[in-house]
Amino acid sequence: MLDVKLLRENLDEVKARMATRGGTIDWNEFVTLDRERRDALANIERLKEKKNRLSGEIGKIKKSGGDAAALMREGEEVSEAIRAGESPLADVETRFERFMLTLPNLPARTVTVGKTESDNKEVRRWGEPPNFDFEPKNHWDIGEELAILDFTRAAKIAGARFAVYRDAGARLERALINFMLDLHTRENGYKEMLPPALVNRASLIGTGQLPKFEEDLFHLAPGDYFLIPTAEVPLTNLHRDEMLEPEELPIKYVAYTPCFRSEAGSYGKDVRGLIRQHQFNKVEMVKFTEPDTSYDELESMVRNAEEVLKRLKLPYRVVELCTGDMGFASAKTYDLEVWLPGQNAYREISSCSNCEDFQARRANIRYRKEKKGRPLFVHTLNGSGLAVGRTLVAVLENYQQKDGSVVIPEALRPYMSGLDQIR
RNA sequence: GGAGAGAUGGCCGAGUGGUCUAAGGCGCACGCCUGCUAAGCGUGUGUACCCCAAAAGGGUACCGAGGGUUCAAAUCCCUCUCUCUCCGCCA
Question: How far is the CA of A243 from the C1' of B10 (A)?
Answer without folding.
Answer: 10
